[in-house]
Every structure is written in structure tokens, then in C-alpha cells.
Amino acid sequence: MPYPEIMIRPMREDLSRLGIEETRTPEQVDQALTQSKGTVMVVVNSICGCAAGKARPGVARALQHDVRPDRAITVFAGADIEATERARSYFTGYRPSSPQIAILRDGEVVYMMERHQVEGQTATQIAEALTEAFDRFCSPASAKTLQQVS
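^ that's the sequence the OP posted. Answer follows.
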């Protein structure tokens, strides 16, 4: 049974205020992950304390970095159940966790931050890890490097 919307609305808004697109249906997730060029960050949002105190503030700080994913979407675990399942279906080789932050390039996971990597970290440490991932996987130079290797 999904969480009541009134209860999670502020948690949704933490990310949507940053310009992260909410995807509430499997079709919206598919569209975002199969029709987008470049990199897409997927934030599996959650009602838990580590999402509130660490993951969402860490994402907010990371998005202030000069290099960012081309697109960012979110699903809410425990609310957008089918959309969350669809997003996780793209996370081949990773177990479901909430929160969870993935960066995909052309539908393939190139970076994953799982709940166990959020727990015990500060929002600043999470932001630092994400900005390192942005620099590595989302910069124009990294895209050229990946294309040359292919």
C-alpha cells in the first residue's frame, strides 16, 4: 500500500524544486531512460531518515556543480511503486535499495550509490561522491572517451 501523498509531498518537493523530473509511471521512466541522449541521474527517493538528512541534501549540493547529468529524474519508493520497480529494472546487477542514486548513459548504469553508501555519510560526503561521478561520467570529455573506447 502506497504512502499517503499528503505525507510525502514535502519529500517529493525537495527534489522537484531542484529541477529533478518526477516520473510516477513505468511509461514515464521508460521514456526518460530510453529516449534521452547522454546521461540520466535516477534518484530513488524515500521516506527514510537517510534520504531526508543525507541523500536529498547531498543531491542538492551536487547539482550546484558545473558538470551535471544531462537529465535527472526521480521515483518515490513506497509511493510510485510500479515506476520504482521499472527504474530498478534498469539497475542490472544491483539490489533494490532506498535511497538509491544511479547515473545511466544510453540506458546502462555507469555509477550507483546504494543505501549502504548513504548511511554513515554526511550530505557533504554524498555531494562529493556525486560530483566526482559527474566529472567522470557526465562531462563532455568523458563522453568522448566512452565513444572512442566503444
